[in-house]
Amino acid sequence: MAGSAYVLRLISLMGMLLLSPWVRADVTDPGIVASRELFYQGVDGDRRAVREALRQFRELKAGRPDDPLVQAYIGACEALLGRDGSNVTAKRTNTGQAVRDLDAALVLLVRRVGDDSATVSASTVLETKLVIANAYLHIPSFYNRLEDGQRLLRELQQDPRLDFMSPGFRASVLVSAATVARMRERPDDTMHLLKRAQELDPVGREGKRAQHMLAAETE
Predict the structure, then answer these.
(1) Terminus-to-terminus CA distance in the chain, angstroms?
(2) The pLDDT of residue 103
(3) How distant, in Å, are the alpha carbons of 95, 132, 141, 204, 217 from that of 213?
């Protein structure tokens, strides 16, 4: 895991170069937006949406092979295929491919951020980190990516550029942090993070997720 930790440290060191303090932007590329919506449907259990999202992200990659966000979503879609696999072999095959593609997305991100001739928006950097972190957090522990996912999530929470992202994106980071807190059996932190997420995005998808998780915590 030393190589993975080195990549994550490089991202942290270079990330602050990418955004002036007055810029606020989420990734609004039409191709990303449409495919991302399908991906969310897949996260919520729609298996057909997962396959279609993966197909669309692979099409996007054909035109932009060095885009770390597209690569991250490909890996995350494959992780969902692993989650939904009909047998152990399918689960392992798809999850193994997911890990390889997620790791590749991190490498692409470092390369693009470190290339003086490349332009990488802060929104791309932050969303790429969030997609990879969430996938790592939910991949089976024997793939040894949980620590990396937690580290990426900490970087997101500590990144001042997060304040310039949309309420829904910030709420998503908080929901993910609450998931980690619940894994670590820290109920007070879990509740606090979920309540903040609900306040940030009361009628959005992440706020509703937070509300659902809060209800489960109080049962």
Answers:
(1) 38
(2) 97
(3) 25, 21, 22, 14, 6
